[in-house]
Write a structure and sequence with these properties.
Layout lengths: L16 E16 L6 E16 L3 E5 L6 H8 L7 E6 L2 E2 L6 H6 E4 L13 H11 L7 H11 L5 H5 L8 H13 L5 E5 L7 H18 L2 E6 L2 H7 L2 E6 L2 E7 H6 L4 H9 L38 H5 L4 E5 L2 E4 L6 H9 L28
Parallel strand pairs: 3-8, 3-9, 6-7, 7-8
Antiparallel strand pairs: 1-2, 1-4, 4-5, 9-10, 10-12, 11-12
Helix pairs in contact: 3-6
């Protein structure tokens, strides 16, 4: 998808956050060694990530594989609990666990539509089940199912309701997954890479469906993706993540037209653009760091073409470079302040040694997320 061909998203209807994540942090235990010498190391999956989702807007979480995008989405959905930070619904903290009342308001659409649908049941079963769990079935359940399928452009509804998942295309399966999420009348939709496993020719249809749900049903939508071009096409706001941390956030048009962080600049240079006259210039090199032993200071500094002494000594602050546009980068800090921080004693790098997990640790942390 071309950045030049992308259309700006509609203006936000509301700026009041429906769902917020404040300082979300998540560690996972990773087994190290074998036998009597085995132990666990701490994987720094997500650290101090904050974002807000407002009704009638799409916020896109962008980053390469392993940056922590899916972990953030699962924490917002309360599928996993954060080790630190808070999830707030309408400004009120949500208790630990996943209360049914919360699950009804905040729904998640997963990356693989075939794996998220029961292969031995027809589409009707997948749509009826959440209605019954949340006591929303009503008397005419067939009419409700038909309406859900029409809302995601699967017509005639009677024909699709009787199909098995293997009889549908990838795009149709993803539409069924979206219809299932909409069945409980949520206020927030968390879409985790909803088009990454679909054919390129049908991705635009799913993106337009999400845009229609934002505008017509006033949903707050989180769109998780590694494709910054599709984020520009759909989202009102883009939040860029690298190695478990937020590095830049801004309105989508501004971020793609004038990126302030070197990592965002590299993402945009790597995005396909048929209007680009010359091959992209990719100054950065290397691979994402290990999240068991991440680099000290700015986590991007080993790959950054603009790295300075202070970058490896201390993590950069969040700097406001324009209205609504922030970047965590020393390039936007006053040079005198950079020199002061560079002369300060560097903070010790996180260790990858064995550790004892606290007694209150949640039981879901033995299975690390990779994205």
């Amino acid at each position: 998808m071309s950045l030049a061909a992308a259309q700006p998203a509609t203006q936000p209807v509301s700026v009041r956050p429906v769902l917020e994540g404040r300082g979300l942090t998540k560690y996972f235990a990773v087994k190290r060694g074998r036998g009597m010498f085995s132990g666990h190391a701490r994987l720094f999956a997500v650290e101090q990530v904050s974002l807000a989702l407002a009704a009638g807007t799409v916020t896109s979480l962008v980053g390469e594989s392993g940056s922590g995008k899916t972990t953030v989405a699962r924490m917002l959905a309360k599928i996993i609990n954060p080790d630190a930070g808070d999830v707030l619904l309408d400004g009120e903290p949500v208790p630990a666990g996943r209360p049914r009342s919360y699950a009804r308001q905040v729904q998640m659409v997963f990356q693989d539509p075939f794996a998220s649908l029961n292969p031995v049941h027809r589409v009707r079963y997948d749509l009826v089940r959440p209605l019954r769990i949340h006591h929303l079935a009503g008397e005419d359940i067939d009419a409700v199912i038909a309406d859900l399928l029409r809302r995601v452009a699967l017509e005639p509804p009677a024909q699709f309701a009787t199909k098995f998942p293997h009889e549908l295309s990838g795009g149709q399966r993803q539409r069924v997954a979206i219809a299932r999420a909409l069945s409980v009348r949520p206020r927030v939709l968390l879409a985790d890479e909803p088009v990454s496993m679909l054919d390129v020719s049908i991705r635009l249809g799913i993106l337009n469906l999400l845009a229609d749900l934002r505008d017509r049903e006033h949903l707050a939508i989180l769109y998780v993706t590694h494709d910054i071009a599709s984020a520009r096409y759909l989202a009102d706001t883009i939040v860029v993540m690298y190695a478990g941390q937020v590095v830049e956030a801004a309105p989508s048009a501004r971020l793609t037209d004038d990126p302030a962080h070197p990592y965002t600049q590299l993402l945009l240079a790597a995005a396909p653009d048929p209007d680009r006259a010359e091959p992209p210039s990719l100054a950065g090199r290397g691979a994402p760091p290990s999240l068991i032993a991440p680099p000290s200071g700015c986590r991007f500094h080993p790959r950054c073409p603009h790295a300075m002494a202070v970058c490896s000594a201390k993590a950069p602050p969040s700097v406001t470079v324009a209205a609504g546009h922030t970047a965590n980068c020393w390039l936007h800090v006053d040079p005198a302040q950079r020199r002061v921080d560079a002369e300060a004693e560097p903070a010790p790098a996180p260790t990858d040694g064995m550790f004892q997990r606290p007694a209150a640790a949640s039981p879901d942390r033995h299975h690390p997320e990779e994205d």
